[in-house]
Amino acid sequence: MKNWGKCLGTLLCAALLFAAGGSTVQAEETAAPISAEQLLQMVNHQSAVVGNAHEILTETVRMTDTASGKTVETNVVVDTTANRHVNHTVINSNMTASTGLNRSAVNESWAVIQDNVRTTYTRNGAVWTPSYEQLSETQLAQLAYQFAPAGVSVAGSTVTTDGSTYKLTGVVNAVNMKEFISVLTEAGIQTSAAAFPVTIVVDAKTLLPLSMTVEMTDLKVIGYPHITASAVAVTTYSEYGQHGTLALPAEVIGNAA
Q1: Which of 25, 26, 184, 190 has the fewest CB atoms within 10 Å, counting from its CB?
Q2: How far apart are the C-alpha atoms of 152 and 52, rounded to whole Å?
Q3: Distance CA 42, CA 21 (A)
Q4: Cα dihedral 30, 34, 40, 45 in deg (nearest 10)
Q5: How many other CB atoms are found less than 10 A from the CB of residue 232?
Q6: Are 52 and 241 in contact (CB under 8 A)?
Q7: How many CA atoms lie within 13 A of 244 on its CB side?
Q8: What would the pLDDT profile of 53-76 be if each residue is shown by its tens digit?
């Protein structure tokens, strides 16, 4: 994720310089006979039980020059397949980043978590470069529930349903968004918010999350007071229980340097 941050930071900076220069019928939603706290607790439990899924994270940063009216967007798509267990976790991720300047970058990585150590292999041509990180017990506990919305508070929220899904809103602690925030920081974009609005959609039958949307508004662009910025991070979840055999390929191990 650190390499992705540098990559996206470069694209955002380029976009910043540029900026300086049909309807869908939806089912009616009604109040659901369950509290937000109860639903979130069940989502956490179900997510931990399943342990593997396919995730697509789409991060969109929009910057607008109020003087010229120019707007540019940077889109980052992180396609992740993960097989998580208490003692051994394998994660494969592919990231594509692009801007309105037709600039793009791609990054692929594999991560293995075992014996409290996360080893991340990042592709560089035919070579996979490993990096290592010692994880605390708290970090390991959070990873075990990665499919669940970590750090989300839904106090006072009302759950709505359209019959097939539940929807709840809340706030997510900025600490749990630190990787995305670090990407913005590298591009000279800052936020002082301690939490951000989040909307979670849950499958009413399986009680597994289908999507999570985090909104970040009123961002500050250092050195450019006339430029406004906002960001949205949308994660969609699918293919639960279909990746229990995901393992680190021999190609990655054999070409590690």
Answers
A1: 25
A2: 21
A3: 49
A4: -130
A5: 15
A6: yes
A7: 6
A8: 999 989 888 888 888 888 888 888
Domains and CATH numbers, the chain: 2-20+29-254 (2.50.20.20)
> H-helix or E-strand containing 158?
none
Both tokens of 149, joined, read: 């919305």
Using a pLDDT cut of 90, give the percent of the chain over it: 31
Question: What does the alpha-carbon distance between residue 10 and residue 116 come to, in Å, rounded to a whole number?
Answer: 32
- Show Cβ contacts of residue 239 under 8 Å, excluding neighbours closer than 6 positions: 53, 54, 81
- Say if residue 22's pLDDT is above 50: no
End-to-end Cα separation, the chain, in angstroms: 19
CB contact at 8 A, 166 and 34: yes
CA–CA dist 30, 59 (Å, integer): 29
Q: Are 74 and 64 in contact (CB under 8 A)?
A: no
- Which of 83, 82, 64, 85 is CA-nearest to residue 73? 64
Q: In the chain, how long is the greatest CA-to-CA distance?
A: 56
209 has pLDDT over 90: yes
What is the arithmetic mean of pLDDT over 205-224?
A: 90
CA distances from 220 to 49, 189, 225 (A): 40, 6, 8
pLDDT at 235 over 80: yes
**Pair type for strands 117-124 and 127-134:** antiparallel
